[in-house]
């Protein structure tokens, strides 16, 4: 009975060691990008408020972007007035790379003041908005987006 217990204990130790050995071979799992709800939670950590959310609103005539687009307003920190924004979320890095230029063309259709344009890229996301002037607000957007993308 003693040898059976020792055998079971040894087997448990060996199997526990295999997990860490396999992790070393395969590496740590890569973080995956979050959904829009997860992104808004990250915004909320910086006291940014998201409102007027419309899924599928690309803001332009390119209907191919509609499934990847969410329009919303966002305010907080030094930006008391809600600012219009759009988030384009691509399926993966390849899709992002292939279609990224279409976001620029689309934004040109809906942005009223190109001088106030802000674009933040964190594959698979592109956040486009206009009117942001507060650096703390912009930094909070950037940090939230990078975090949501798993960067």
Number of helices: 4
Give the name of the CATH architecture of the largest domain. Answer: 2-Layer Sandwich
Strand content: 25-35%
Low-confidence residue ranges: 6-20
* DSSP, total strands: 5
Main beta-sheet annotation? 5 strands, antiparallel
Task: Give the spatial strand order of the biggest sheet.
Answer: 1-2-3-5-4
Order of helices and strands: HHEEEHEEH
Give the domain tally. Answer: 2
Secondary-structure class? alpha+beta
The radius of gyration computed from the alpha-carbon positions, rounded to a whole number of angstroms, is: 22 Å
pLDDT averaged over residues: 83
**CATH class category of the largest domain:** Alpha Beta
* Percentage of residues in helical conformation: 40-55%
CATH topology heading of the largest domain: Phosphorylase Kinase, domain 1
Shape assignment: globular
State the end-to-end distance: 52 Å
Could you walk me through the main structural features you see in this protein, from its secondary elements to its overall organization?
With 151 residues, the protein is α+β, with helices and mostly antiparallel strands. Helices cover 44% and strands 25% of the residues. It has 2 domains: 1-30; 36-149, Phosphorylase Kinase, domain 1 (2-Layer Sandwich). The protein is built from 4 helices and 5 strands; from the N terminus they run H-H-E-E-E-H-E-E-H. It has a 5-stranded antiparallel β-sheet, sandwiched between helices. It is globular, with a radius of gyration of 22 Å. The termini are far apart. Residues 6-20 have low confidence and may be disordered.
């Amino acid at each position: 009975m003693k040898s059976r217990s020792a055998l079971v204990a040894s087997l448990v130790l060996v199997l526990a060691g295999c997990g860490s050995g396999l992790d070393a071979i395969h590496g740590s799992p890569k973080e995956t990008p979050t959904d829009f709800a997860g992104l808004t939670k990250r915004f909320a950590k910086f006291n940014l408020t998201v409102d007027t959310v419309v899924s599928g609103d690309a803001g332009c005539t390119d209907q191919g972007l509609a499934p990847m687009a969410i329009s919303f307003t966002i305010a907080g920190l030094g930006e008391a007035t809600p600012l219009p924004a759009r988030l384009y979320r691509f399926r993966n890095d390849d899709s992002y790379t292939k279609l990224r230029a279409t976001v620029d063309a689309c934004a040109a259709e809906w942005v009223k003041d190109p001088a106030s344009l802000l674009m933040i890229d964190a594959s698979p996301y592109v956040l486009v908005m206009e009117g942001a002037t507060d650096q703390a607000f912009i930094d909070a957007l950037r940090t939230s987006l990078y975090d949501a993308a798993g960067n």
